[in-house]
Amino acid sequence: MIVVEDLHKHFGGFHAVDGASLEIAKGSITGLIGPNGAGKTTLFNVIAGVLQPTSGRVTMDGEDITGLPPHELFHKGLLRTFQIAHEFSTMTCRENLMMVPANQSGESLWNTWFGRKRIADEERALRAKADEVLEFLTISHIADLKAGEISGGQKKLLELGRTMMVDAKIVFLDEVGAGVNRTLLYTIADAIKRLNEERGYTFVVIEHDMEFIGRLCDPVICMAEGKKLAEGTLDEIKANEQVIEAYLGTGLKNKDKLEQA
């Protein structure tokens, strides 16, 4: 679905992404791991159009999407969430979801005067869709709460819900488990799995929690120094000497530390 070919992103003399090449299969939940500074988030940002690549190529379903801005990728079904959730804090959770779909009739001044029925019909449909999403994610009880008042884990679920308000094909999740308690983390994992199995979403997940990765992801890609180091099941990755060296610099004798990372 996504093919990355010899991708580079340089910041002056620093090569954050340095010749990365990888493929994301349609219908997969792919884990992306690696030590701090490996280039994972920069890779996400380049694929998702947040940053322009220095060189290289990204294709989606055979179409060259290299360097396209986020709003164009959004319309193609490629969405990206962030480690720190980006909610509208003074709006309710339901309203946050209703804001997502583009080209709503209410955005046109003409329609506010002459298309009020159309706007009302759209808002009813959007409200129903938002309520369906909140129920799917088991957070209907926060529908009328201000988004700035909910917990970090609930904000991550709300971000996931925003991807459900449009026809997402592939979603890039950046440290979805950061700052989330264990109970909500399992809720997030279950929601991702259901979206993958029931609605055909493809996911790519950056995460440091190996239990979370093991619960969801196959395959797992390990990055180091701006490029792909290894790919396989989590067990294969854990047993890979190069991966252990990248994390620990000390070889297999400290393998158990990677398993606890």
UniProtKB/TrEMBL annotation:
A cellular-component GO term for this protein: plasma membrane
Domain of life: Bacteria
Family annotation (PANTHER family): CONSERVED COMPONENT OF ABC TRANSPORTER FOR NATURAL AMINO ACIDS, CONSERVED COMPONENT OF ABC TRANSPORTER FOR NATURAL AMINO ACIDS-RELATED
Gene from which the chain derives: lptB_1
InterPro entries per the UniProt record, alphabetical: AAA+_ATPase (IPR003593), ABC_AA/LPS_Transport (IPR051120), ABC_transporter-like_ATP-bd (IPR003439), ABC_transporter-like_CS (IPR017871), BCA_ABC_TP_C (IPR032823), P-loop_NTPase (IPR027417)
Organism: Phaeobacter italicus
Designated name of the protein: Lipopolysaccharide export system ATP-binding protein LptB
Key words of the record: ATP-binding, Hydrolase, Nucleotide-binding, Transport
PROSITE patterns in the record: ABC_TRANSPORTER_1, ABC_TRANSPORTER_2
GO molecular-function terms, A-Z: ATP binding; ATP hydrolysis activity
Residues in ABC transporter domain copies: 2-250
The EC number(s) this enzyme carries: 3.6.3.-
One Pfam family cited in the UniProt record for this chain: BCA_ABC_TP_C
Keyword Protein biosynthesis: no
